[in-house]
């Protein structure tokens, strides 16, 4: 995180409040969050509009200042940052939330996607990578830090139901990995939406997954699908 801190701080232009991206920072590690605040305020296109250390205060402060972006830690002292993300986006659908985590796991990633986060990043990411995520335009697709994805895709046990996946379920899983929705998948295979949802439900049950994103990650871990050409 400190690798290019000095370089970032040398950018002396003052933020233009009429054109800058407003950022709310949420992390219970004061030194960490204040260092990011300093770097953000040194950018001509970014402006830190608040720093909070709990999930509840993050929700309240977001409602008050209505930031363009929230940088949200997962582990907070009252309730977790992903639940806070869900509450913030429910109240402020135009606000983007960048999730930061020190311990990525498939469940947290799936929950972050469901909550509406725009990015899922490691706390060890470089400051440039975090700022790039802040500057990304609004998108329905979750941006996943490569280091976080690599951590998720290695060193985990194979779900026992993997060997039970049928050929059609594998084909549907491949479509999910490409970011297609059930209606698109149903049209692609010439099946009804109900049948398609049945395949997806079976995939979730066999992999022990709770979302399409989690199913794709689990399947990749097992070597069942290749994510090299997938959107994320």
- N to C succession of SSEs: HEHEHEHEHEHEHHHHH
Helix content: 40-55%
| Count of domains | 2
Q: Sum up the overall morphology in one term.
A: elongated
Radius of gyration: 19 Å
Name the CATH class of the largest domain.
Alpha Beta
Describe the secondary structure blueprint for this structure.
Blueprint: H1 5-9, E1 21-26, H2 30-41, E2 46-52, H3 55-65, E3 69-73, H4 81-91, E4 96-101, H5 106-115, E5 119-122, H6 127-135, E6 143-144, H7 146-152, H8 167-177, H9 182-189, H10 193-207, H11 212-221
Parallel strand pairs: 1-2, 1-3, 3-4, 4-5, 5-6
Helix pairs in contact: 3-4, 4-5, 5-11, 8-10, 8-11, 9-10, 10-11
3D structure, described in words:
This protein has 232 residues and is α/β, with parallel strands linked by helices. The protein folds into two domains: 148 residues, 3-Layer(aba) Sandwich (Rossmann fold); 62 residues, Winged helix-like DNA-binding domain superfamily/Winged helix DNA-binding domain (Arc Repressor Mutant, subunit A, Orthogonal Bundle). Strand 3, helix 4 and strand 4 form a beta-alpha-beta unit. Helix 3 runs parallel beside helix 4 and helix 4 packs parallel to helix 5. The N terminus is likely disordered.
């Amino acid at each position: 995180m400190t690798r290019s801190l000095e370089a970032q701080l040398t950018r002396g232009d003052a933020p233009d409040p009429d054109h800058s991206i407003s950022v709310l920072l949420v992390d219970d590690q004061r030194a960490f969050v204040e260092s990011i605040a300093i770097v953000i305020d040194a950018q001509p296109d970014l402006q830190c509009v608040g720093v909070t250390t709990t999930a509840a205060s993050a929700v309240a402060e977001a409602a008050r200042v209505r930031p363009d972006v929230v940088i949200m830690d997962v582990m907070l002292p009252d309730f977790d940052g992903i639940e806070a993300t869900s509450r913030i986006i429910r109240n402020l659908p135009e606000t983007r939330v960048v999730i930061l985590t020190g311990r990525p796991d498939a469940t947290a990633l799936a929950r972050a996607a469901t909550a509406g986060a725009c990015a899922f990043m490691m706390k060890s990411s470089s400051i440039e990578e975090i700022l790039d995520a802040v500057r990304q335009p609004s998108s329905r697709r979750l941006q996943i830090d490569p280091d976080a994805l690599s951590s998720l895709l290695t060193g985990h046990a194979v779900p026992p139901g993997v060997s039970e996946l049928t050929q059609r379920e594998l084909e549907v899983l491949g479509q999910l990995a490409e970011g297609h929705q059930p209606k698109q998948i149903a049209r692609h295979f010439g099946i009804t939406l109900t049948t398609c949802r049945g395949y997806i439900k079976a995939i979730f049950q066999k992999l022990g997954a709770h979302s399409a994103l989690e199913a794709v990650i689990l399947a990749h871990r097992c070597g069942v699908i290749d994510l090299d050409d997938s959107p994320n």
